[in-house]
Amino acid sequence: MRLDESTWTDARDAETELALLPVGSTEQHGPHAPLGVDSLTAEAIAEAGADRYAADSGDEPVVGPTIPVGIAEEHRAFDGTLWVSEDTFRSYVRETVESLAAHGFDRIVVVNGHGGNTEAIRELCARVSRDGDAYAAGYTWFDAVDFDAFGHAGPAETAVIRHLHPELIRDDRLDEAGDGAADGWGEWVAGTNLAYDSDEFTDSGVVGDPRDGDAALGEELLDSAAAELSKLLEAVARRGR
Ligand SMILES: [Zn+2]
């Protein structure tokens, strides 16, 4: 049940204790993929995971609205990228989670599409679970699926968007994206990443080769992310506080 398409009476009558909150980012994903990749992906995975869990268990979770701006200052050199501070993000997402709990949705999974958000989500979910009236856990889809060459706006993310919204991938800019891409994230010396911003190591904003990401791979990744999320929902639903 999508909260933004439901009425307050629907929310009142919902029998589930489970809620999902998709969290994305508005940030550069190379010249070929849209700024909203992380939000579009988090939302699609949250919905697919909730559907799969509902089909298996008969319990239909609530899916909250997608939070569109996250911790993405590392991409600030690229136009259109938006960000908030870690403190603002933690407070905003935690208070949103707590308001879900106030309505009785007190098992919450934050479904994350952006690496820069991961640590803050873990921290705020711990705070809610330790001190609040709910149990919350963060799920970052690319940590759950089995795929090595993740990168940034590389094969995996390009493939997922190609599957979900093929019209949003600019095929005529794939060579520019791939030729200006870095092989890995950061500028590492002695176990230390010297780079704070992504333009220090990638010209096009991309890490990995987006030309390797076709729609079939995207479908496979999305399917596996939804299956893992459904597994997590089952464990969170069973878990005591
Ligand atoms: Zn991304």
TrEMBL record:
Pfam families from the UniProt entry: Creatininase
Domain of life: Archaea
Known cofactor(s): Zn(2+)
Alphabetized GO MF terms: hydrolase activity, acting on carbon-nitrogen (but not peptide) bonds, in linear amides; metal ion binding
InterPro entries: Creatininase-like_sf, Creatininase/forma_Hydrolase
GO biological process: riboflavin biosynthetic process
Keyword Metal-binding: yes
Keywords of this entry: Hydrolase, Metal-binding, Zinc
Protein known as: Creatininase family protein
Source organism of the structure: Natronomonas salsuginis
